[in-house]
Write a structure and sequence with these properties.
single chain, 153 residues, alpha/beta, Mannitol-specific EII, Chain A, five-stranded mixed β-sheet, 5 helices
Length: 153
């Protein structure tokens, strides 16, 4: 799993979930981690299968799509300056305010579920989630997530 400071956006100021998704997806496109149509695929999947999760102390989302758009294994991360509404996972009408977004990119389809499980376990760690929400730099975010999403995992 590629953990690259360039794929991390700290304190993103966005108006809505589409802007958050497009901004982080474009960063991954620019890094050649995903194909050019990745942003549209992630937004379409998020519309069909929302990924907003209630977490303690702040909510998160784990938007992703099929491996057809992935070029390398990577993780995009965004912390938001202000909460942005995402549809809650498992619902079609419940919005929750999200401040953290993890965007896993997986080439091997057999690795997608394990990566999502790893992300969800990470989001159960209250101190880590709090640390992400309070992080002041991309480097600080990398240090918080590195143990969970390192190359060795």
């Amino acid at each position: 799993m590629k953990i690259d400071e360039r794929a991390v956006i700290c304190g993103l100021d966005a108006a809505d979930s589409d802007e958050v998704l497009r901004t982080l997806a474009q960063r991954l496109i620019d890094l050649n981690y995903v194909k050019d149509d990745y942003a549209d695929a992630v937004i379409e999947r998020e519309d069909d299968y929302p990924t907003g999760l209630e977490c303690d102390p702040v909510n998160a989302a784990i938007p992703h799509c099929t491996n057809n758009y992935s070029l390398v294994d990577a993780l995009g991360v965004a912390t938001l300056k202000h909460p942005v509404d995402f549809m809650e996972m498992g619902t079609s009408d419940q919005k929750i305010p999200v401040r953290i977004m993890l965007m896993p990119v997986v080439v091997d389809p057999a690795e997608q579920v394990p990566m999502l499980v790893r992300a969800m376990k990470f989001l159960d760690l209250k101190d880590k989630v709090q640390g992400l929400a309070e992080a002041k730099s991309s480097r600080e975010i990398i240090s918080i997530i590195g143990d969970t999403f390192s190359e060795d995992e």
